[in-house]
């Protein structure tokens, strides 16, 4: 499956010249048909800038804490995780290689430890410093439940899944990175879904701060993985529909469908961070998404609350916010009236 992956970036567009994948909806299921690009027509409903999705074969889906857990009480959002697993099943069965990066261990561990009454720290205090021992302990407590849930749901759907816990320190090692890629390739070749999270319980970033391979949250971990495993598309799932011109709670906030550096970079306003358990925040997510896109892997930031979000994305529907390295060129062509 991997022989055609010549370069870290743009692999799919190169492969697209010979064949691509088309999804169509038959009642309740995706049907996947490989067809030659010379026959390719873009459906009327499809955003023309998103036709590249038809050739995406390897996708990373990063799932944020706010998707995995419920805002009301911090417990697992079973319906959302179940819907995601069902969608991933459809993708895997249609020949798409799916790699998940999931957050939620800290949030889940916190929730459990409060329930057992063994932790007194407030969530707000816990979120202040990721290096807090309590936060590490929460991750250790929550990770097993998190992966058990994915594993249970996937096995009920007859999909095999696997757990990969990594640290920044691992990524700084060339042999580790090679082993990681080999293992991921081997898993996806067997139609097993790799599920990544940071191994928070033992992670430190001491003495490795100035290294490009350091990640500090799961957004940046997903970005590193996208390059390492030569993904064709990176999807960030979160609790809002995409990037807005200002915090989505503000009445005149507008969803940005395609992020144009020149137009949006200095204009977008960001709200206060942070949900406890989350890291990074929206401004950081945008910075990461643009960097990944510039390197050649398109990124879509969208809601993890949709039952059919993956189908919509792979049908080329204009949902969420697209980051693409050609976005500025599209904008230029538009203003030139091309
Ligand atoms: N301009 C903006 N557009 C969209 N979301 C924003 C914006 N500013 C702040 N946010 C907030 O960013 C949050 C998502 O970012 P983040 O908490 O990092 O996601 P996650 O941790 O789930 O990956 C949303 O809950 C949203 O309210
Ligand atoms: N590794 C942590 C995730 C931290 C993180 O990046 O959270 P988020 O910003 O919600 O994606 C956990 O499992 O809780």
Fraction of residues in helices?
Answer: 25-40%
Number of helices: 13
Unreliable sequence segments: 1-42
Biggest sheet layout:
7 strands, mixed
Strand order, sheet with most strands = 5-6-4-3-7-8-9
Q: Overall mean pLDDT score?
A: 84
Shape: globular
What is the terminal separation in angstroms? 38 Å
What structural category arises from helix and sheet content?
alpha/beta
Number of beta strands: 9
What ligands does this structure carry?
adenosine-5'-diphosphate, the ligand N[C@@H](CCC(=O)OP(=O)(O)O)C(=O)O
Keywords: Amino-acid biosynthesis, ATP-binding, Kinase, Nucleotide-binding, Proline biosynthesis, Transferase
Pfam families: AA_kinase
InterPro entries: AceGlu_kinase-like_sf, Asp/Glu/Uridylate_kinase, Glu/AcGlu_kinase, Glu_5kinase, Glu_5kinase/COase_Synthase
Protein name: Aspartate/glutamate/uridylate kinase domain-containing protein
What does this structure look like?
It is built from 13 helices and 9 strands. The strands form 2 sheets. It has a 7-stranded mixed sheet, sandwiched between helices. 38% of the residues lie in helices and 16% in strands. Residues 1-42 have low confidence and may be disordered. It is α/β, with parallel strands linked by helices. It has helices at residues 11-16, 65-68, 78-93, 105-115, 123-128, 133-156, 168-171, 174-189, 218-228, 261-264, 282-294, 309-314, 327-335; strands at 20-26, 29-35, 58-63, 97-102, 160-166, 192-198, 233-238, 299-303, 321-323. The radius of gyration is 20 Å and the shape is globular. The structure holds adenosine-5'-diphosphate and ligand VHF. The ligand N[C@@H](CCC(=O)OP(=O)(O)O)C(=O)O binds next to helix 4 and strand 6.
């Amino acid at each position: 499956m991997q022989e055609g992956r010549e370069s870290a970036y743009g692999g799919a567009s190169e492969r697209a010249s010979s064949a691509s994948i088309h999804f169509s909806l038959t009642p309740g299921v995706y049907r996947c048909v490989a067809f030659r690009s010379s026959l390719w027509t873009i459906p009327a409903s499809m955003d023309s800038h998103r036709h590249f999705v038809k050739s995406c074969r390897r996708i990373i889906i990063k799932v944020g804490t706010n998707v995995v857990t419920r805002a009301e009480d911090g417990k697992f959002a079973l319906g959302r995780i179940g819907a995601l697993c069902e969608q991933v099943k459809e993708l895997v069965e249609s020949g798409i290689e799916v790699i998940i990066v999931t957050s939620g261990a800290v949030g889940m561990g916190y929730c459990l430890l409060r329930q057992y009454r063994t932790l007194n720290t407030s969530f707000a205090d816990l979120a202040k410093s990721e290096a807090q021992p309590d936060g590490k302990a929460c991750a250790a407590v929550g990770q097993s439940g998190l992966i058990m849930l994915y594993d249970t749901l996937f096995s009920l759907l007859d999909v095999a899944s696997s757990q990969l816990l990594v640290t920044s320190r691992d990524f700084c090692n060339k042999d580790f990175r090679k082993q990681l890629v080999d293992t991921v390739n081997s898993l996806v070749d067997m139609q097993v879904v790799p599920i990544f999270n940071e191994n928070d319980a033992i992670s430190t970033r001491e003495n490795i701060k100035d290294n490009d391979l350091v990640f500090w949250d799961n957004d940046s971990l997903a970005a590193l993985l996208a390059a390492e495993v030569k993904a064709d598309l990176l999807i960030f799932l979160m609790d809002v529909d995409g990037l807005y011109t200002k915090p989505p709670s503000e009445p005149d906030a507008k969803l940005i469908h395609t992020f144009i550096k020149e137009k949006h970079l200095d204009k977008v306003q960001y709200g206060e961070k942070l949900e406890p358990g989350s890291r990074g925040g929206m401004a950081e997510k945008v910075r990461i998404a643009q960097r990944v896109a510039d390197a050649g892997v398109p990124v879509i930031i969208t809601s993890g609350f949709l039952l059919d979000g993956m189908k919509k994305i792979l049908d080329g529907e204009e949902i969420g916010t697209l980051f693409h390295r050609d976005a500025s060129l599209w904008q230029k062509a538009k203003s030139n009236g091309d």
